[in-house]
Design goal:
Blueprint (H helix, E strand, L loop, with lengths): L14 H17 L6 H8 L3 H7 L3 H24 L5 H18 L1 H10 L5 H28 L7 H12 L13 H16 L3
Helix pairs in contact: 1-2, 1-4, 1-6, 4-5, 4-6, 4-7, 5-7, 5-9, 7-8
Pfam family, one: TetR_N
Keywords: DNA-binding, Plasmid, Repressor, Transcription, Transcription regulation
Protein name: TetR/AcrR family transcriptional regulator
Amino acid sequence: MDEILSTPRPDELSESKRMIMEVAAKLFADKGYGSVGISEVGDAAGFGKGALYYHIKSKEELLFDIMTVYMVELINAARTIEISGASVPERIRALSHSFMEIMFASRPEMTVCFREVHALNDVKRKGVLGLHADYQDIWMRVFQDGARQGVLRALSKIEVKAILGMYFYSFLWIKGDGAMTIDAIAEDFTGITLRAAGKG
């Protein structure tokens, strides 16, 4: 029987499930998914085995949830921005700010997604990659709006992927040490993006 893929909705997660996911994400990010047993997750989260499995189905399902919940949050925020009616530059600015806010709140989850997506089965892996494609499509549509309005040049898919790569890989090198605020970093990324997409 084919697996039925169900992407978790962030607003449907209990406090206990969120806490388990946060603990597991930090363990997986620090030690690697393959090096962390489910009992270690339970111990770190303060749940016995029975209580832990009340909230999760399996270790792989937990990994999938970690990888997808922050992406669903990104997509939901981006869709709201896309249809906001703001100018294209303001939508790009808002997309930059929403990304940075979620990135700083979800750095372990992004680390796990970057390193461990290969550990998922084919169905789940395609589900995660599909969410990334959905998010990219929102940015693409905003850039296309800018080209139609004459405020941006037309960008190829490769150019959009390159711009989004700048965002998604920023978690590897941006430090959360308070040297710059999230807003300041988002503004710098906005400027880079608008210059890259500008008509010159």
